[in-house]
Amino acid sequence: MLQGEVRMEERNKVVFAQAPVLEWKLEELKRLSGKKTTKDALNEAIDHYLTCPFVGVKKRLETEEPEKPRKDGWWWYPEK
Fold first, then answer.
1. What is the DSSP letter of 76?
2. Sequence-ordered list of residues with C-beta below 8 angstroms from that of 45, at least 6 positions apart, any chain
3. How far does the chain reach from its first CA to its final CA, in angstroms?
4. Does residue 31 lie within any of the structural domains?
5. What letter does residue 68 receive in the DSSP assignment?
6. Which site in 3, 33, 59, 80 is 20 to 30 Å from 50, CA atoms measured?
7. Tell me: the pLDDT tens digits for 51-74?
């Protein structure tokens, strides 16, 4: 097996994770997801995070170099 490859059995292994969460945040997550249990609300939030196309957009925007201001002071770029 090549480095970085994961067998399907290892990929579908269930793990139990614990983390301290503020009660109001958990209640808000359950309300927004429409789920009644913490387990279901957290699973839906994780699934959404892993599939959302907007995850990482902020990080990409932060790493891009900002445009330099024009020397003539104009904010509008007619050539774009």
1. -
2. 29, 33
3. 49
4. yes
5. P
6. 3
7. 988 887 766 666 666 666 666 666
Residue 38 counted as domain residue: yes
SS3 12: coil
- Residue 2 DSSP code: -
The 10s digit of each residue's pLDDT in 12-32 is 888 898 999 999 999 999 999
Burial 1-32, CB ≥16 within 10 A → b, else e: eeeeeeeeeeeeeeeeeeeeeeeeeeeebbee
In the chain, the number of structural domains is 1
**Closest-CA residue to 16 (of 47, 45, 39):** 39
Q: What DSSP assignment string belongs to 27-78? A: HHHHHHHT-SSHHHHHHHHHHHHHH-TTTTHHHHHHHSPPPPPPTT--S--T
SS3 state of residue 6: coil
